[in-house]
Please model this.
Amino acid sequence: MSENQNPVIETFAADWRTFETTHRIRTYKVLSDSLETTWDDERISNYHFLWLRDNCPCSQCVHPRTREQLFEVLDAPANLSAQRISLDKEGKLIVGWSDGHNSQYEAGWLRSHAYDPASRSERAERLRSVEPWGSELVIPSFDYSEVVSSDSVLLDWLLAARDVGLTMLTGVPSANEAVETAAKRISFMRETNFGSIFEVKTKAETTDSNAYTSLELPAHTDMSTRELQPGLQFLHCLINDAAGGESTFVDGFAIAAALQAEAPEDFRVLCEHPIDFWNKAPQSDYRSHAPIIGLDARGELSEIRLTNWLRAPINLPSSEMGAFYRAYQHFSALTRDSRFLVSHRLEAGQMWCFDNRRIMHGRKAFDPTSGQRFLRGGYMDRDELLSRIRVLERSHVRSTPMAAS
Ligand code: OGA
Ligand code: ZN
Ligand code: ZN
Model:
């Protein structure tokens, strides 16, 4: 569609979401560089003039089609001030600025983006969705054909993948493309040197990974040698006629939290000392340098990174080596602790989908002479999962205002 076929919309939400009016501004007071508002529940939210001007949702400031910002706050006049302020009957805040520009803000949007302490902590609370688990976990399971055909079942599955971190699909056809079909319900897959799909079967002569033997695999994350470990991992079982080979899982975040409670110093060592992971294949040489327990910019747990068989020799100052091994052994002991362990023998027609940056997975040894075992797997970044959840949630009515991120 060309520019002139697309009428410019004068007022619109500068977002693809809608923000319900749950509260209204009752009064406001102009301060030297900000506007102090008092809501109908007595909450006081202060909005700086620059912040308000920066967030003007009009069609000059935000492109109506892309909903991306056009205005740069550097272009606001020095000493910007609000000269005319009013509330309309819908509760919108209307501001006439000292440079002649006019802005309107919906009450629901203002409330959802307020940055007073109560609003910020409410929002932080809403963003906190991780549900840590131990051996008591009942693995959330979803029917493959319902996930494929229904958006609301899809959303339930994805929320479980985000919050619990470990899910199973059942009734999966023994067709080769089942991983791709399930993954495409979410978004793009992430290709690696093992292909966009990897096949887990014993490749006695040609194996380039311990995974492709019949050996036990201790609890690990995949692709720990990459700067960014893939977020989701899919593992679809097409054949499992071999004795053994049970899947094992522990919640790495639950273990990290237990470590922090039991031995804060060990937790700190694993957060603060980056170590190296190297793959050792003839045709690739991926390397990463990162801590076993990764925290995000908020200081919250964001990932576990640990594949024992891809770890390079530890390179730390001699004075730190003892403490590092103590912490590492403590963490590893928790990954074997029955309090945290969940195990299930994946059968043909079942598929795991788990958060590879949180849930550590493993496998018991199996007897390759007793029958065949064949899994197909793939990866996807966490961003894809979270984006898909947010888009699906736009069409679901919420009882509380949406978190502004
Ligand atoms: C892997 C892996 C699990 C299994 O390939 O990295 O963990 O059950 N496989 O074979
Ligand atoms: Zn504007
Ligand atoms: Zn693995």
User: Anything to note?
Assistant: The radius of gyration is 26 Å. The pocket of zinc ion (ligand 3) is lined by residues 211, 220, 222, 361 (CB under 6 Å). The chain is about 25% helix and 25% strand. Residues 1-9, 397-402 have pLDDT under 50 and may be disordered.
